[in-house]
Amino acid sequence: FRVDVVILNTAPIALAFRAVSSGRVVVGNRNPVRVRFEVRLLREYIDYLPMEQEYTAALRQRIAEGAFSAR
Fold first, then answer.
1. What pLDDT, in 10s, does the model give residues 16-56?
2. What is the spatial distance between Cα 46 and Cα 37, in angstroms, rounded to a whole number?
């Protein structure tokens, strides 16, 4: 089976959130440092989410209008 390893401390917010929310822990346990990291990540993701949604909506609009092309 396929395994993707992600260094969460340096990963982009969206990737780190996906890994924490749907991934499987290989190394580590529910220690206080990990819990604090996950709580901080969740707060950052909640702040980031509206910006990502706005960007995605604008990108979809440009694609639908035919205004998006690779340069």
1. 999 889 877 777 667 888 889 999 999 999 999 999 999 99
2. 14
